[in-house]
Amino acid sequence: MPRTQPAAALHAARQCFFETGQDPHGLISDVILNSWRRCRRFGLSADVLLEGGPLEQAALRALHQQYEDIRRLCRPEMEALCSDAQVTSSVVILTAPDGLILDAMGSAEFLDKAARVAVRPGVTWSEAHTGTNAVGTALHDQVPIEVRGAEHYFSAHRVLSCSASPILDGRGRTIGVLDLSGEARVHPGHAMGLVRFAVDQIERRLLERDLAGREVIRLHPDAALLGTHREGILVFEDQHLVAANRYALHMLDINWSEIGHCRYDALFESASRGKPGIHTLRSARGREFRARQDRVPRRLGRAPRHGETLTRRHVEPIFDAPFNQKLERYSQLLDADIPILLQGETGSGKEIVAHELHRRSQRAQGPFVAVNCASLPESLIEAELFGYRTGAFTGARREGATGLLRDADGGILFLDEIGDMPLALQSRLLRVLQEREITPLGGGQSVPVDFAVISASHRHLHSEVAAGRFRGDLYYRIAQAELPLPSLREHADLAALIAKLWATLGGAEAEVSMAPDALQQLAAHPWPGNMRQLLGVLRTLLALATPATTLRIDDLPEELRTSTAGPIGRSAASLRALKHAAIQATLATCNGNLSQAARQLGLSRSTLYRHLHD
Predict the structure, then answer these.
(1) Residues 326 and 386 both lie in one domain
(2) Which domain holds residue 536?
(3) Which of 241, 301, 557, 585 is at a distance of 20 to 30 A from 385, taking alpha carbons?
(4) Would the pTM of this model clear 0.85, i.e. be above it?
(5) What is the DSSP track for 546-571?
(6) Cα–Cα distances in angstroms (integers) from residue 493 to residues 410, 490, 497, 499, 607, in the given order
């Protein structure tokens, strides 16, 4: 039956189940019905309003310290999803393995509404406690799931529309749940794709933490997808399978129970192992894969420091020639220890630009530590930034913590959304930037630090200073050189940019091209979330696309199919520019093969050739 249920069908289903006690077969999905049945067995009443007041600061600190490793592991994806959540009036939620909410960030307006129905840190969203909901049901079924509106068991939760996925380690153990929740009446169609892609990245990093000294096999039926998030990963020790990812289990048609028990020769026909390069590997069931096998050395490079952003794929095409020249000049300023302030709308690529300045600077071999001043809880931001000594507060780790500012020593400190930093902390940060010394919470000897500073904000900080919401002395300390970033809608040729990003993100590797009508529709969208929103949509489309296909307008998320064209004068709205961008993107996908590109575009070879030269 269709995933999205008509309101009338859901209303009838609730009447049938909650008022008459009968099962509403055919009115809701089996997944939701089975969850409702479990909740009834738990003795839950659908009309109960779940209570869950805000935690005291000490309890919140203790909770965050207990799950610090999970929170740090998921922080890059949480922050990436946060921009999309702010645009779509949603919140990003991270929970512990039992469904206890650890973090919730995103739209400030919706965070307030969500808190009224107990969507806040410290509240457990397991099914047994909170009824049918995306977090709890995903935990029970161990699969990604959406629960929309009246599909929730508790009546009060009908205002929510939620998409969640469990986060699994290499042995199939749940370490948490990632969820994107918003208002039921405006559910974003791409939410589930964004969550699944983010969880793929988290699980991949988690799996690769523990590869030292082990044999790793990366496989996929299509060699072009080796190295992407879709590849299967198998980890062997003494010929026994000790870890894997979901993709590998699906490809080999095995389940998590095989981890720790299954041998290499039970999975593959060939006993040949460790071949260099990409080669063919046949499974015990006769399926052929392209595979790469290697043994990871026991001595790896240093683990990322606390707060350090993990390496991400470089997105060079967003930098045109004039902006590249600006980046060269500003990297020289950074080398001269001149603080740089990046100003731009939410999602305009401030962190990407900061990474690029780091890459071009003399500190490229040092750490890049990103601190999102808007997402750190106010009760913990001081401890996170400056570190603390043993016993500095209730719930503090026994060994203390160095803090993010010390982690940046020798590299770049990136203070994202610094305009949202509480005034009380601005004075202490100013003192650190002036004296280049840090004193941890709880006292002790000051520690000298050496880092260059890049700050960023979507707020106009000069106006914030005039309004008394930001310290003037701190502003003049961090804004000695300002670099404004244009919004995406101001880009001179948006269609060409989208085509380049598509190829860079892996569209060419997966042989997934984009039809001219789809490219035109994407170029016409206003993109209020700017580059981050666009990259999120492109990654979602790529994650859900079937290899060797052409995406058309019907494949786009529903909210993008109705976009209207931008300003008439914008060259991206030019059909000619769109046509050429689509052709170039398809040619990149086909490695320049005109015949293959013509087939994917539905044109004859001669027509394609004519379009290339008109």
Answers:
(1) yes
(2) 488-613
(3) 301
(4) no
(5) PSS-EE-GGGS-HHHHTPPP--TT-G
(6) 38, 9, 6, 10, 24
